[in-house]
Amino acid sequence: MPLNEIFSFAGMFLSVYCLIPYYRGILAHKTQPHVFSWLIFGIITAIAAAVQFAEGGGPGTWVVALNACLCLSVVVLALRFGQRDIRPVDWVTLAAALISIPVWLLADNPVLAVFILLAIEAFAYFPTIRKSWHKPHEEVVQTWLLGSVTFCLAVLALDHYEFTTVAYPAFVSAVNLGLALMLLIRRRVMAVAA
Question: What is the pLDDT of residues 58-94, one digit of tens each?
Fold first, then answer.
């Protein structure tokens, strides 16, 4: 079996594994996913998988495509058990992300299209970051840390290393790591302040 397929299978396993505590937390009403973030994550991750597939991403695309499905499964749970604190800024973020999708579709330049996807993904993180800043215990740090590793494995599993195939999983890996670190820091700061 080629090494990139091994990385892909490891990434897919880790994708499912890292969400198990997240699902448990949602069902136990301890984890409060922000439905807008996860909806945008699901849509954009599916688009990124399509771009990678079209650009010959190979097995690395499998990890990204599975993550799109998993994000949408969190949306289903979030609609029932998720964050109810939806503010006007969250609606603006959702609208900006959704408005950006047709712009991405009309872009003839693949590199420009990837930059637009990354901008939309950045918008998607905002509601979760805003919520997590105030309520860092409503997110599962392990999920975000392992999610970072998952997308590193997605990069390692690619057949072709071009900006259009590497940028999205690398960006998501970095942001997931940053979110996990923010959660840990905010928990510590809040514990000291209490």
Answer: 898 999 999 999 999 999 998 888 666 777 877 877 7
pLDDT value, residue 108: 73
**Per-residue pLDDT reduced to its tens digit, 4-38:** 999 999 999 999 999 999 999 999 989 888 888 88
CB of 70 closer than 8 Å to CB of 173: no
Backbone angles phi, psi at 77, to 5 degrees: -70, -35
Query: CB neighbours of 146 closer than 8 A, spacing ≥ 6?
Result: 14, 17, 18
Residue with tokens 């939309």, as numbered in its chain: 120
Q: Domain-by-domain residue ranges, the chain?
A: 3-193
